[in-house]
Design a protein that fits this description.
The complex is a heterodimer of chains A (334) and B (331). In chain A, helix 5 runs parallel beside helix 10 and helix 5 crosses helix 14. Chain A is mainly α and 334 residues long. Chain A is built from 16 helices and two strands. With 331 residues, chain B is of the alpha/beta class. Chain B folds into two domains: 154 residues, 3-Layer(aba) Sandwich (Rossmann fold), CATH 3.40.50.2300; 132 residues, Rossmann fold, CATH 3.40.50.2300. Chain B has a six-stranded parallel β-sheet, sandwiched between helices. In chain B, strands 7-6-8-9 form a four-stranded parallel β-sheet, sandwiched between helices. Chain B is elongated. At the A-B interface, helix 3, helix 4, helix 13, helix 15 and helix 16 of A face helix 1 and helix 3 of B.
């Protein structure tokens, strides 16, 4: 005969409090990692805590982050775009070509954005209208867009960008605050609002969780995806303008391999690679984490190969930690 | 062990990993920035840089570079070096133009910047160190053949394409110094288009057309390997000497078989050594890099700058059976 008290089950009268949820969230964990890296860097290198050095370090991630915000929405919706770095190459080549015909800074900006949009639309047509898988389509266009740059440029480089064009990638607004930082902040706020405060953002989550259910709920799934590809292309165009301005020249090898760093940043930011969940603040923190890690290791002259290993371990570690934590708490509870 | 202590242990290990390099502030820090890490040629250059540092005594060499050969990667490296306030940067550039803004900034902050091997546009560096020069190469390729022909003889040229700029300049320079090698006669010039099979056929044809041929000079890394193979296949090892410009890794077999007595190409160790010496001279001894300047570089002599602030290090380095084993694994 068992005691009746032992048979009563504890039923919570409310869900976890808001404060507790924030404390347990991915973003909090990531913020902790960012702070830890900042502290470690401060102690290991006497050069780290210097306003100008930190300002220089932001260039390690600002351009990638601009694309990562748009990519985050795309990945939440269950799609991906691996052609972003090649879009940069093509947009930069187009701008370089225009310079040869005497284009000024405003025209260059329009061309950069225009080529980005066109490339995004190209991807979008194949994915949303022909219904092909985005990973296949964009692996194809990754070679295609960069291939066109190689055909146009070959072994040569475009240079001679107007002096005023240098403002985007080399300009400073005030003291150590760069123009690219302004872009980073404005774009982050734009995507934060778009994803978390609008109907469009809710539609993106819905599509990522269950596209069929989203369709039957009256969401125009293909149109939303089309817009997301356009936005990713447009952001690649913005990144192309900044990067080209910073380098002051264009070669077809520009931004090689950047697509993987962008995707890494997105995943590190807590966006589910299978779609359906994630947040923009997470991506913002992830951008800082990656920038701080690469700059900190660079200050210690750690070879680039070790740096890649470190980023890889960080990615796996940060993703594995919450999983380990839940396994641990589940075991303790039982 | 609780999760907390596990985390603490991990953090401690990570901390220990970071804390290891002691900072020696009194040393002159010269950064040798390469196109990408893990390339034998640049690892050898780093060895040369260490040799220069040992000779100078108070120099610390920072050997660094990106993972892949991109300009963006090198800019991140340069930014980190600027932040550390290194004394000098010696760079083999992935892009002539894209590095200029970053390197200009380095110079504005008082860092000496030179390029070596693969150059940067003049506004982005103080001087550029070429491994060799066209006249030196032109002289070297005929000298390599003539050294083994004390009584003179017939030589033929196997070049790349008729429009290959480098090869044409080198052959032109070679013709200028032919007077110094009496008895050596160039009987033919053929073109293998830098294709292995065509070069092989052209070399075979040369041996058939000129039965008394003593040497084939191939100032191209593709042609020289193909010509050596053709000589082996024709059973003319010992009669026809293949020489010119080639890579030790590809030519080791030809040296071993005797099809080639010797050949030449730049020596990466000397290049890294000279770059470090030059960077040190500019940053520490107040030497101005200006057209006409003569800058000492230790055991490699002096570097004379031309009107574009470029200079040639030395004759191409000669590889033969005595040193091929040491270099064939490098590049």
């Amino acid at each position: 005969m068992s005691d009746t008290a032992a048979q009563t089950r504890h039923i919570p009268d409310r869900l976890n409090s808001r404060a507790f949820r924030i404390l347990r969230s991915w973003e909090t964990l990531l913020l902790g990692v960012a702070i830890a890296i900042f502290v470690i860097n401060t102690f290991t290198s006497p050069y780290f805590l210097n306003a100008w050095n930190l300002s220089d370090a932001t260039f390690n991630f600002t351009e990638k982050a601009m694309i990562a915000f748009a990519m985050a929405l795309l990945i939440i919706s269950g799609e991906i775009d691996l052609s972003v770095a090649s879009i940069i190459a093509l947009a930069s080549t187009a701008m370089g070509l225009a310079v040869q015909y005497g284009a000024g800074t405003p025209e260059l900006v329009l061309i950069g954005l225009g080529v980005g949009l066109l490339c995004g639309a190209f991807n979008a047509v194949f994915v949303t209208i022909l219904g092909l898988p985005s990973i296949v389509v964009t692996i194809g266009t990754m070679s295609l867009f960069r291939g066109i740059s190689y055909i146009i440029l070959g072994d040569n480089a475009f240079r001679g960008y107007p002096d005023s064009f240098a403002w985007f990638g080399q300009g400073y607004l005030y003291w150590v605050f760069t123009v690219e930082m302004l872009f980073f902040v404005v774009i982050a706020i734009f995507y934060g609002v778009l994803l978390h405060k609008t109907n469009f953002g809710r539609a993106v989550y819905a599509i990522g969780n269950n596209p069929t259910a989203a369709l039957f709920s009256g969401i125009r799934v293909q149109r939303v995806k089309f817009i997301l590809f356009l936005l990713t292309g447009l952001m690649s165009g913005v990144a192309a303008i900044c990067l080209t301005s910073r380098l002051g020249s264009t070669r077809p090898s520009i931004a090689t391999g950047m697509e993987l760093e962008v995707v890494t940043m997105v995943v590190l930011g807590g966006i589910n690679i299978l779609g359906g969940s994630g947040s923009i603040p997470g991506v913002v923190i992830a951008a800082f984490v990656m920038g701080l890690v690469t700059f900190g290791l660079g200050l210690l002259n750690v070879p680039g190969i070790v740096m890649s290993i470190f980023i890889g371990l960080l990615l796996i570690g940060v993703i594995a930690l919450p999983r380990l934590w839940s396994m641990f708490t589940a075991r303790r509870a039982s | 062990m609780s999760v907390f202590t596990k985390l603490l242990a991990t953090a401690a290990v990570a901390g220990a990993m970071f804390a290891s390099p002691a900072l020696a502030q009194d040393n002159v820090r010269v950064a040798l920035v390469v196109k990408a890490l893990g390339i034998g040629f640049f690892e050898a250059a780093a060895k040369g840089a260490e040799e220069a540092a040992a000779e100078l005594g108070n120099v610390e060499v920072i050997y660094t570079g990106p993972t892949d050969t991109t300009a963006e990667g090198q800019i991140e490296v340069i930014n980190a070096l600027i932040a550390q306030k290194v004394d000098a940067i010696a760079i083999s550039a992935n892009d002539t133009d894209a590095l200029v803004p970053a390197l200009k900034r380095a110079m504005q902050r008082g860092i000496t910047v030179i390029s070596w091997d693969s150059g940067v546009a003049p506004e982005g560096r103080q001087l550029h160190l070429n491994p060799s020069s066209n006249p030196l190469i032109g002289n070297m390729i005929i000298k390599l053949a003539a050294d083994h022909l004390p009584d003179g003889g017939q030589v033929a040229l196997l070049s790349a394409t008729t429009t290959s700029t480098n090869q044409n300049i080198w052959m032109e320079e070679m013709n200028k110094v032919m007077g110094n090698y009496p008895g050596v006669e160039v009987v033919a010039t053929v073109y293998g288009d830098d294709l292995a099979d065509k070069s092989y056929r052209e070399a075979t044809g040369l041996m058939q057309s000129y039965p008394d041929l003593d040497a084939i000079i191939a100032p191209t890394s593709v042609g020289i390997v193909a010509a050596a193979q053709a000589v082996v296949d024709a059973g003319k090892v010992g009669q026809v000497n293949v020489t010119g410009l080639g890579l030790p890794s590809e030519m080791a077999g030809a040296i071993e078989s005797g099809a080639s007595q010797s050949f030449a190409i730049w020596n990466p160790i000397d290049l890294g050594y000279s770059a470090t010496m030059l960077a040190y001279e500019l940053s520490q001894n107040g030497i101005e890099a200006a057209p006409g300047a003569e800058i000492p570089m230790g055991r490699m002599g002096t570097l004379t700058l031309d009107e574009k602030n470029e200079g040639a290090m030395a004759d191409p380095f000669v590889y033969d059976s005595s040193n091929i084993d040491a270099f064939k694994s490098i590049f």
